[in-house]
Amino acid sequence: xDTIFALATVPGKSGVAVVRVSxxxxxxxxxxxxxxxxxxxxxxxxxxxxxxxxFLDEALILTFEGxxxxxxxxxxxxHLHGSIxxxxxxxDCLEDHAEFRRAAPGEFTRRALMNDRLDxxxxxxxxxxxxxxxxxxxxxxxxxxxxxxRDAAETWRAHLIRALSLLEATIDFADExxxxxxxxxxxxxxxxxxxxxxxxxxxxxxxxxxxxxFEVAIVGPPNAGKSTLLNTLAGRDAAITSEIAGTTRDxxxxxxxxxxxxxxxxxxxxxxxTTDTVESIGIERAVARAREADLRIFLQGDExxxxxxxxxxxxxxxxxxxxxxxxDGVSGKTGQGIQALVERVQRHLLDKVTGAGLVSHQxxxxxxxxxxxxxxxxxxxxxxxxxxYDLAAEELRSTVFxxxxxxxxVDIEDILDHVFASFCIGK
Length: 427
Fold this sequence. Notes:
alpha/beta; Gyrase A, domain 2; Four Helix Bundle (Hemerythrin (Met), subunit A); Rossmann fold; 3 domains; five-stranded mixed beta sheet; 14 helices; 11 strands
């Protein structure tokens, strides 16, 4: 492979700028900057001097041998002073070196995958970890990065291979008397895996929501206090408020951290019957987004709800409590009932989180569904008796193949570009 380099920290002025070099010729950097090789995996202070540009900076140098680095290749990291000019000068020197080239987005992590330092589920979790904004997202990403989904897949694969070996043994001795009926053990193994996969599929929706965020729609008739409530929750004037009915025409979004959960509150157009064409479009959008939301807060006003009725889990509360709605209402102006409402929303979403599974990406979900389809068919053949064991075995091989696709052992070239497209350069 080529030897690649990139700035591993955010571009711009900072306390420290880290430049990472990875590949078979990474240690050529020592000659390039006229420094003595430091002891592997120990930080050493060195003066970087280039034969043309002269003295560049005094930096901490970290080196990793092949097999002991993040990528699995020889790696050198330069921890520079966080000057834009210093970082650019070092990058220019590296680019002038014939054996080095700039890294593509996610290329360091891609090499970690190719060198068996990470599996594909860990790569996806690493991307989630970089993008995490809340405590729950961080915990979920770390769970995947530590290999929990991979470990679960390995357990399922081991059960399937055991079942497959029992079936193969029976098939090989079909013309002889087999002393033990393997069907009960095979059935138990397959049913266990089937139940585990079903549980993961059931928990996908919530797990994905933790990753991308929940949506809570604030709905109700015009002038019920929806926009004022949103502004209070946001701590700023995110939505225009007015006594004129129909002021809100589009869906306004405010994203926040709610008890460690990523939540986007939606302010929607007032729901009422109207002949105004533009307002009607806003109402249609409001109804569509509200139906797709994970939770709806219905603010009662002077009019009844139109176009959309509260569901069993939705929150119904009277708005504009400062105008006499009583102790159970909420007011964006005075703050009455806001904390209780927020806590109610938080409890509702946290209850959902308890059902979250390990699978949080659509790719992972698609692979598991494919595995379940083959596994279900294998169980059907198994129940038909020994004459169908060869067909059951073939379906089990396909199930195992799907699980290998899950962790990236086989058949992944077509999805790698998509996975790494979201990575930043230098990771």
